[in-house]
């Protein structure tokens, strides 16, 4: 009887452990393994203007492929498009999750018309950049600093702005929390999350079949991501980063965003210690401000930058 009980306990333990491991792997796969953007019908952009911007970058006659090495020896890619006239002004435009640099063509077109050179990086794991996990801004902030240094090395007189969307926005804010060269003059954060842990919890609740309680799911995700990707999701904390920032920052969000809570934008704004401005785009969903109300969107950005004499 004792032997049978031991076998039963071992069977139960194996089943429980196997279930936990399988669930943890599932969480890691859906949250942290990069998926590449394609032009397939089932992966269409949310607005035709984004697709037009994508084509604008892809087919631009002056576009250049640039490559640098990250501090952990990954090869990182960016497209660089110079403006028509010689300029010391640069915009580093940072894309969101499940996409690549081409999605930011709509922003690049505007900046180029303003006489601003554009660098569009592929974040690690996306586009032509190496990497097998999503950093959510944690490692990416260091990659953006490498791109900043790349520009300054080529042009010591460079004046640089950072403009990020969604995960790229969080990356922007995480970057401003670091000690940056004086060449970085401003940051624009469109639809950032305040903390990755909160965003994971919000997103997990929307999954069908999210039967595991949120605290347990977050714990398992935290452990698995730390073991496999090497960072702690609790340290992906833009709201703490902005407390250390001295970079003038424009915080933007759409009030109809159901993917990232718009209230996170106001919390980030309140926490920031840097010179700052705030803009809520009415009627816009997640990163939709640029297409739902482009006049107001760009007027706010242009005004913000002109006040900084950029």
TrEMBL record:
Transmembrane segments: 7-28
Every AB hydrolase-1 domain range: 92-207
UniProt cross-references to InterPro entries, sorted A to Z: AB_hydrolase_1, AB_hydrolase_fold, DNA-binding_regulatory
Domain of life, per lineage: Bacteria
The keyword Transmembrane helix appears for this protein: yes
Keywords recorded for this protein, A-Z: Hydrolase, Membrane, Transmembrane, Transmembrane helix
A Pfam family it matches: Abhydrolase_1
The keyword Cytoplasm appears for this protein: no
One Gene Ontology term of the molecular function aspect: hydrolase activity
Protein's name according to its UniProt entry: Hydrolase alpha/beta fold family
Source organism per UniProt: Butyrivibrio proteoclasticus (strain ATCC 51982 / DSM 14932 / B316) (Clostridium proteoclasticum)
High-level lineage: Bacteria, Bacillati, Bacillota, Clostridia, Lachnospirales
């Amino acid at each position: 009887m004792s032997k049978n009980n031991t076998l039963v306990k071992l069977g139960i333990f194996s089943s429980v452990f196997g279930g936990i491991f399988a669930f943890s792997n599932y969480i890691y796969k859906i949250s942290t393994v990069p998926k590449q953007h394609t032009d397939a019908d089932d992966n269409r952009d949310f607005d035709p203007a984004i697709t037009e911007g994508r084509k604008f970058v892809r087919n631009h006659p002056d576009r250049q492929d640039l490559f640098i090495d990250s501090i952990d020896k990954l090869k990182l890619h960016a497209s660089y498009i110079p403006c028509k006239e010689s300029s010391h002004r640069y915009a580093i435009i940072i894309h969101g999750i499940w996409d690549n640099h081409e999605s930011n063509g709509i922003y690049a077109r505007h900046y180029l018309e303003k006489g601003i050179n554009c660098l569009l990086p592929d974040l690690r794991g996306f586009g032509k950049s190496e990497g097998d996990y999503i950093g959510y801004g944690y490692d990416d902030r260091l990659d953006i600093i490498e791109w900043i240094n790349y520009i300054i090395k080529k042009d010591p007189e460079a004046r640089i702005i950072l403009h990020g969307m969604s995960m790229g926005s969080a990356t922007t804010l995480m970057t401003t929390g670091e000690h940056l060269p004086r060449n970085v003059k401003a940051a624009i954060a469109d639809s950032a999350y305040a903390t990755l842990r909160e965003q994971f919890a919000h997103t997990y609740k929307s999954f069908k079949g999210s039967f595991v309680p949120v605290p347990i799911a977050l714990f398992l995700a935290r452990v698995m991501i730390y073991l496999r990707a090497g960072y702690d999701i609790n340290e992906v904390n833009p709201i703490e980063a902005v407390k250390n920032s001295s970079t003038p920052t424009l915080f933007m969000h759409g009030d109809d965003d159901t993917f990232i809570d718009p209230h996170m934008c106001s919390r980030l704004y309140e926490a920031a210690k840097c010179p700052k401005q705030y803009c809520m785009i009415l009627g816009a969903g997640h990163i939709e401000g640029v297409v739902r109300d482009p006049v107001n969107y760009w007027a706010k950005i242009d005004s913000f930058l002109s006040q900084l004499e950029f």
